[in-house]
Design brief:
Elements lengths: L1 H14 L8 E6 L9 E6 L12 E6 L6 E10 L6 E10 L2 E3 L5 E7 L4 H4 L8 H6 L5 E8 L8 E5 L2 H9 L4 E8 L10 E5 L2 E8 L2 H20 L1
Antiparallel strand pairs: 1-12, 2-4, 3-4, 3-11, 4-10, 5-9, 5-12, 6-11, 7-8, 7-10
Protein name: PEP-CTERM protein-sorting domain-containing protein
Organism: Lacipirellula parvula
Keywords: Membrane, Signal, Transmembrane, Transmembrane helix
Length: 230
């Protein structure tokens, strides 16, 4: 009888939705880079970088006499406390301060191969390779809702695609880093088109591994069987 129940339980696990399977929502918010494991910062094409004391994001371009220079952002999230499989993931950014003559601006998220130690090294001079890495490669998500007409605290949501989910799951128990770039720039226009803010959060929906879920159900069925015999 117990064996039959275990087989039925295994079939049930396969058919469960994330919610039914006991999915957990994990929210990781960036903070002071000196003490928080979750942080963000920026690099620009002139090889400058953001403050080591604040987690901020900055994107876009700024004018100079020789034409605009570009700014890109990185995000770092510590996944050492995450256990299970991530079935959905979202990056939440505040709309922030948007300077633009366009009604909306588009931002995309990309994979990053630059070592985290290089991104956080404030004694090193950023290179073209580091800057380029923050806005090229495998695209994880896009949002086209950033607007200068919106309040700064309006939340913009990036839903990670399958490449993003695979990258996150590959970093479970480790550290996940990715970049962001404004995609709607016109380099011919030497104008101040920027997005900047401080609030960023990675929201994960995590389900337990099938083996762990099956073990828990097995224990419950076994306990029920013992009670029935008693």
């Amino acid at each position: 009888m117990v064996k039959t129940l275990l087989i039925a339980a295994t079939i049930a696990i396969v058919g469960l939705s994330p919610t039914q399977a006991g999915a957990a929502i994990i929210e990781l918010t960036t903070g002071d880079p000196r003490i928080s494991p979750h942080k963000s910062g920026w690099n620009d094409s002139l090889h400058f970088f953001g403050s080591p004391y604040f987690s901020v994001f900055s994107l876009g371009q700024r004018p100079t006499r020789n034409g605009p220079y570009n700014i890109r952002t990185y995000f770092i999230f510590d996944l050492s406390g995450v256990h299970g499989s991530v079935v959905s993931a979202e990056l939440l950014l505040e709309n922030g301060q948007v300077k633009s003559t366009d009604p909306f601006e588009t931002v995309s998220l990309y994979d990053v191969t630059t070592p985290i130690s290089v991104l956080l090294d404030r004694l090193a001079i950023p290179t073209d390779a580091t800057f380029n890495d923050l806005g090229t490669g495998v695209k994880y998500a896009t949002n086209s809702d950033f607007s200068s007409a919106a309040d700064t605290n309006v939340i913009r949501t990036f839903t990670m695609n399958q490449d993003g989910l695979a990258a996150i799951n590959a970093k479970i128990g480790s550290v996940f880093v990715f970049g962001a770039s404004m995609e709607s720039l016109d380099p011919r226009r030497n104008a101040d088109d920027t997005i900047s803010g401080t609030y960023s959060m990675l929201r994960l929906t995590v389900v337990p591994e099938p083996a762990a879920a099956l073990l828990a159900l097995s224990a419950m069925i076994g306990f029920a069987s013992l009670r029935r015999r008693a």
